[in-house]
Amino acid sequence: MKLQVNGRLHEVRHGDEALVWVLRDELGLTGTHYGCGIGMCGSCTVLVNGEATRSCQMPARAAQGQAITTLEGLATRSSGGEVRLHPVQQAFLESPLQCLWCIPGHVMTAVALLDAVPRPSTEQIEAHANRNLCRCGGYNTIRKAVARAVELTREEA
């Protein structure tokens, strides 16, 4: 079975496994974290055709023929080899939190939001940030990071 992950086609063996495990164990993309396993916490969020998706709830086989983006697929590389972080990644890097286990899911959720709504309201940012859990209680910092990502996106344009 083949999956398109971060713009590349990958042959995978375990199509009946949850997508989170195929990404982590078969493809070595450990930026996608496993949290609760029941789709509640959001740590495993990836983009599937641009939509924030809980990868612990999706069999890898269901993602066949779709474009999957993980945390590792957000940054770009210039022709000179310089890595350029996605504005959301940069904003979260500027806003340190405690344990960081939930951050990949928050980043991916924020990317989906900003792709759909380039200039979200405070209420939209809060609603999207509240879709994922943070055991450390970093919600204010997370919301500020998403607002900062909006600023960085505007600066790039």
From TrEMBL:
Domain of life (superkingdom): Bacteria
InterPro entries from the UniProt entry: 2Fe-2S-bd, 2Fe-2S-bd_dom_sf, 2Fe-2S_ferredoxin-like_sf, 2Fe-2S_ferredoxin-type, 2Fe2S_fd_BS, Beta-grasp_dom_sf, Diverse_Oxidoreductases
Gene3D superfamilies: 3.10.20.30, [2Fe-2S]-binding domain
Hydrolase found in the keyword field: no
Pfam families noted in UniProt: Fer2 (PF00111), Fer2_2 (PF01799)
Keywords: 2Fe-2S, Iron, Iron-sulfur, Metal-binding, Oxidoreductase
Record flagged with keyword Repeat: no
Residue ranges annotated for the 2Fe-2S ferredoxin-type domain, each copy included: 1-74
Protein known as: (2Fe-2S)-binding protein
Organism, as annotated: Deinococcus oregonensis
